Structures are given as structure tokens and as C-alpha cells.
Amino acid sequence: MADFKPLSPHLPVEVRDLAQALRDLLKGMAGYTLRRYAARRNRDVGSVSRYFNGTRRPPWEFVIDLVTDLTEHRGAGAPTVETLEHLRKLHTAWEEKGARASPDSGVEILTQQLAAADRLSRVSSAQSHALGEALTDRQHRIADLEVRLQLVEADLARATAQAEEETPELARLRHEVDQLAAKLREVEGQRQAAEERCALLERQLQALEDVQEQPLDWLPPPARNAGLCPASWWWMTTRRTCW
């Protein structure tokens, strides 16, 4: 807990409001005293004490550092725009109050403004350097992608040319396949017909062999069959008589 002394009742309203706002910010950093916070920011503890007591106007850089430290300590998100704008108004009101009260304070004000401008310049330089590196990296990536794109386009052109060359050959091969398929169907039909013919002939041959193997003792005596054809001829002509 920060070891604050009560604010002087003789402080102007503008000074009191800013000093109280700074105290509220430091109170949010549990466990921090004025001395510990001064050591954290490597500042003179006497000057820091005057900032919180309202006897010296803190530079705007100090206010921003305090807000940043509180945010980091709490692990919360960045302060809202309304919070920063409120602190800015309090700081500006003290600045205007001091300028009206003492001409000598103008030097301090300008010095603080110069420090703030220098801080902004350093931050901008760092950001510019980071952006420059990012820009260079993106340019290198763009160049690499352009080369890869050209290679892909070259491969595509070769593939297209090869496809155009092979298209007539493909058509010829497809025509030959159709012809061979038709010829195959024709030959298959002939084979089937030959198979059926063979089966028929085998059945006829088997029937003839069966007849030849049968005994002939059932035939009538020769005298009674003088006008008939031989038995074998009779069977081969489907029982037709010879006239």
C-alpha cells in the first residue's frame, strides 16, 4: 500500500484532481510504495513524491508510464480511451493553471513537452524501423512468390503443349479400341456359334453310336424283308423306306 500523506487543502482544484488521480492509479498496484515505484522507473524518489503530493506537475510521460505499469501489474487489457482522455484533461488543466500562475513555469512546461515529444520521436523511430523490416520481409516474399508463379506458368504451358500434341494420338487410339471391341464381339459370336454346332454334332454322333451298338436280333427273317432297305440305312434316313 502506497504511503501517501494527505493532500494540502491549499492546492488548486486542478492540481488536487490530478494528484488524486495519480494516487488512485498507484493504489491499484498492490504492494507498491512511493520508493519502490520510483526504483521501478529509475526516478528520484523526491520528485516522485512531489508528483503524488501535488507540489510539482508530473510530465505527461510519467502519467503514461504509471498507466502502463498498472495495466501490466493487473494483467488486464489496455486502458480505455475515456480513462486516457480524462487524465489528459487533468494534466492539461494543471498545465494551464501553472502557466497563468507563474511565468517561470513556462520553462518547465516547455521542457516537459520537449521530453514528451522526444519520447514520441523515439517510439516513432522504433515503429518505423519495425515497419521497415516488415516491409522488406514482405517484398522478399513477394519476389519469391513471383518466381514460383512463373515456374508454375512454365510447367502449365509445357503440359498444355504436350496435351495438344497427344490429342490426335489419343483419338486414333480410341478409334482403334472401338474397332477392336467390335471385332472382338464378332469373333465372340462366331465362337459361340461354333460351340453350339460342336455340341449338336456331338449329340448326333452319340445317337448314331448308340444305334450301331444295339443288337439286330429283333429284325424279321430275310425272306420277309426282301423289299426293305438295310437296317443301318433305315436308321440313318430317319426310318424312310427305299422305293
Helix content: over 70%
Number of helices: 7
Class computed from helices, strands and strand pairing: mainly alpha
* Average pLDDT for all residues: 79
Task: Report the radius of gyration as a whole number of Å.
Answer: 57 Å
Measure the end-to-end span: 147 Å
Tell me the fraction of residues in β-strands, as a range: under 5%
The gross shape turns out to be rod-shaped
User: How many beta-strand elements?
Assistant: 0
Element order: H for helix, E for strand? HHHHHHH
The unreliable regions are 99-105, 237-243
Give the biggest beta sheet: none
Keywords: Coiled coil
Protein name: Response regulator receiver protein
Coiled coil: 142-211
Organism: Streptomyces griseus
